[in-house]
Amino acid sequence: MLSIVSLTWDQLHLTKKFIESIRKNTDVPYELIMVDNGSRDGTQEYIKQVADKYHFFERNTGFSHGFNKGLSLASREYIAICNNDTEFPPNWFRLLVQSFDSDPKCGLVFPCYTKGLKIARRWRPGKKVIRLTPFEDSYPSGVAILSKLMILRDKLGGFSEDYEIASGEDADLCFKVWTVGLDIYIDERVLVKHKGKSTVSKIPNWQKLFKRNAELFRQKWKDYIKD
Questions:
Q1: What is the CB neighbour count within 10 angstroms for residue 6?
Q2: Which string of b and e fits 63-85 if b means at least 16 CB within 10 Å?
Q3: In sequence order, what E strands does 42-124 have?
Q4: 36/181 Cα distance (integer angstroms)
Q5: Partners of residue 30 on adjacent β-strands
Q6: Which of 73, 88, 208, 216 is 20 to 30 A off residue 21, Cα-Cα?
Q7: What is the percentage of the chain residues whose pLDDT exceeds 70?
Q8: Contact predicate 87/143, CB 8 Å
Q9: What's the CA gap between 197 and 113, in Å, rounded?
């Protein structure tokens, strides 16, 4: 029914918490797919013990390339893209898939998170499921995303690999969804605990990297970006 894909780059203690929350709070059949971007702290050895499928890169190939590799290994109808510095609450999938299936034009559903862009940042769970207005509303951070494999991989082609290492690819994905006429929702009922910037801090000069990727995004989507 569900493929859960996560990407790692060291931070073994966070990955353990993430997987523990998935094991405890996912009550449907799922496969756990882990892609590692060159960890040297024992993460790969741990992944071999707990993942159903995995792939190891020798170096950090970036967010998009890593997750796209995970998508290529997935085989279930639904796909959850999850940062490894997250912890998921009880009933998370059943609530998100309920939101997804409520709209035949749904492309992505984001949960809320404790750290990330303001549009989906919350301190406690809510009751609303919010449909974003294409190209007018801001986009959520790619902390966690639920979609269908036939949409995310086959229709959208996964994450754009134009963006170096990390940042920009989640915004790019949202714009791709809107350009093909699909909808994006934020489900306030699911609040994911997110540490935030746990791997970004390992990237030298990450602020400059983010600025370059932001400029790339603006140039690529300039005809769609609202003032």
A1: 26
A2: bbbbbbbbbebbebebbbbbbbb
A3: 53-57, 78-83, 86-87, 106-113
A4: 33
A5: 2
A6: 73
A7: 100
A8: no
A9: 13
The per-residue pLDDT for range 89-110, each reduced to its tens digit, is: 999 999 999 999 999 999 999 9
Cα–Cα–Cα angle for 169, 173, 177, nearest 5°?
170
Distances (CA, A) of 7 to 108, 119, 131, 167: 19, 24, 27, 14
Cα separation of 65 and 54, whole Å? 14
Kindly state the average pLDDT of the residues 44-55. Answer: 98
User: Burial level of 31, CB count in 10 A (0-12/13-18/19+)?
Assistant: middle
CB-based contacts of 107: which residues, under 8 Å, 6+ apart?
A: 147, 151, 156, 177, 180, 182, 183, 184
Tell me the C-alpha distance between 131 and 153, whole Å.
22
The domains of the chain are located at: 2-220
Burial class (CB in 10 A: 0-12, 13-18, 19+), 120: buried
Backbone dihedral region for residue 15 (phi beyond 0: left; psi -120 to 50: alpha; all else: beta): alpha
**Alpha carbon of 52 to those of 34, 55, 220: distances in Å?**
8, 11, 37
Superfamily of domain 2-220, CATH level 4: Spore Coat Polysaccharide Biosynthesis Protein SpsA; Chain A (3.90.550.10)
What are the phi and psi torsion angles at 206 (to 5°)? -65, -25
